[in-house]
Amino acid sequence: MQTAANPPDLLLELFETELQGVRFPEVDATSLAAHHEAVELAARAVEEAEQFLARAASDLAEKKQALAQHGKRALAYVKVYAEERPALRERVEALYASRGKTGSLALELDGTEPRRRGRPRKVVEPRPSETRFSEGLLAASADALPLAANGQS
What we know:
4 helices, elongated
């Protein structure tokens, strides 16, 4: 929804008050009001669609969570069931082998990756002695360029 401070609203207000009855080719208060109403209807449609999308996304998240919980339970049952069946046990072990170091499946059943544990890796910055050396090489090569361009060695 637009507020009264928007230029289209102010223009419509101008045509409805001071310019009432004034007509230009294809432009008057009626045509501006029709366009203004079309924009308001489209804005309402977008707002409703966004609300519908938010509800659908929430519903999807709930269903993914339910699938993850149900899948974990199914996997626990299958693990016990597969103990006496070598072929099935190999497939279940392959599922568990795909787990990371944390012991959880690499990709959870809801499709998200598990959080990495521990501290983030430390970013190693170059030491000042390494920086000076590389800057010295750049300066030396920059000094050599003008000499070669002038034909002097």
